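Dear colleagues,

As part of the handover before I leave the project, I'm documenting each prediction I ran so the next person doesn't have to rerun anything. This entry is a single chain, and its sequence is reproduced below.
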Amino acid sequence: MKICVVPIDNRPVCYNLIKDICDVDSDIELFIPPREYLGDLTKNADYEKIIDWLNNIPKTDVMVLSLDTIAYGGLIPSRRSLYTIEDIKNRINKIKHLLVDNRVYAFSSIMRISNNNFNEEEKEYWKDYGKKIFEYSYNCSKYGSFETDVPNEIIEDYLKTRKRNFEINKMYLDWQKEGLFDTLIFSKDDCAEFGFNVDEAIELEKLGGKTKTGADEIPLTLLARAIKKDIKIYIKYTEPEYKNRISNYEDVSIEKSVLGQLELGGFSVVEEEKDSDIVLVVNNFIEKQGELVMGWDTQPFSSVFTTPQKPFAVADVRFANGADNEFVHQILKKETYPQYGYSGWNTSANSLGSLLAGIKVKYNAKVYNNRAWQKLQAIRLLDDWGYQANVRNEINYPDDISEKMKQFEQIIFDVLDIKLKYIYPRYIYPKYIYPWNRKFEIEVVLETISSMEKI
């Protein structure tokens, strides 16, 4: 199967994770732009090179496109860029001919409204007025109007950017009516109950569009959808009486988030475990989702985990952006590790979407690559559990964490039955990189795992 994917940007979870998942089936031939073509925290994607690359790859069976990458240079540039609507239309029209004879799964973001005064991923004025702009948006959406002391020129600039992106999204809806997309999704990133983004989502739905809470994981969920294999899923919540609670950064309950990701990924949901192919274990939260790095606590898993009778996978969403240590300690044993994987990175939607892509590829693999599966699981556990849930809070800035991670490496490699081959004069150990020079994400480098041998 030949699959083309244009990611959101060059972060490991947006770029490497796609490759790591596809590697689990050696029958998949993945076409993905060179990483240097994609954008990062401060650099826009080189859309001209990406368009040229798209025009020169062999014909593929499936295309999964992050339209923001071509339109604006990436997800973050979609909020910052000063291009006019005419600029964007001229640029995106350069790929329209490629959509005619391909099976295309695409998504475009509805511009988020973050409730903070951090401008790392926003326009410069967000550092002074971010929370106030969020408040303005929330109340205008809820009540129809709201008085704010944010300077008029800033409000006008913000609304102008929103209007441009909204008009581009409506253009994609016209393309959908022309039959250019097999699936088109509008993503709702960092949502609240009310806001201009919520209003735009409602309007797009009225016009026939489909919206989904989440962002970074959607190319992966679309990848799962593109693999036409029906898998029957039974959902098992660790806290079933709390499945109606809403996750951080989302506007729907964890139950709706799970069902939405499964529907988009092309899975069937069954009511009885005995009727399932795979059990999806969701380690959900009581009352309020925690987040360790923000100091938002929640009750960790405190029961005894009962391993399902069927093969299972785990979406660990009790905490946003990091594992639940108590739960991981129970499943991180050779006899209880989930056969279809673990994920616990960032938002609930992020964890779910990437997990489902791994399930689809492994279950449907025509040439299964177990070493690639080991690598995928090792990286997720080292990142989501070792780093995000533990080591990240022990450092104040991007730093060498090799020694701090060794205790987690030993446990993970033993459970996954990974033995490190001795290469003179040292053993091969993971390397940890800060790709965007911030603590928020790390890149776990395990490139040598394909040559690892059991000793």
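The two ends are 34 Å apart (CA to CA). Residues 152-177 form the longest helix (26 residues).

All the best with the project,
I.
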